[in-house]
Specification:
The protein is elongated and about 80 Å long. The chain has a domain of about 35 residues. Helices cover about 65% and strands about 0% of the residues. About 0% of the residues are buried. The chain has 2 helices and no strands.
Length: about 80
């Protein structure tokens, strides 16, 4: 690699980094004036469960599996 070209690329990278740093500093100044960051968008997906809901699910599953163990086992069909 040409040494001159490597130095030129490093200066370009330095300029990009300085612009990013300047924009982040500006964002920090803006949020200091406003007092807080804008709210983040809400998370998608499952909602969390309270401890009471977890207990209810636990009891339901215990009853479900107890019932499954009581059922007679059927031999595999198709053979």
């Amino acid at each position: 690699m040409d040494l001159y070209r490597a130095i030129q690329e490093l200066y370009e990278e330095k300029d990009r980094l300085e612009r990013v740093i300047a924009s982040l500093e500006e964002l920090q100044r803006t949020t200091d004036v406003l007092g807080e960051m804008p709210p983040l968008p809400k998370r998608r997906g499952r909602k969390g469960m309270s401890s009471q809901e977890r207990l209810e699910v636990s009891e339901r599953m215990k009853n479900y599996w107890a019932g499954r163990r009581k059922e007679p086992r059927r031999p595999p069909s198709g053979e």
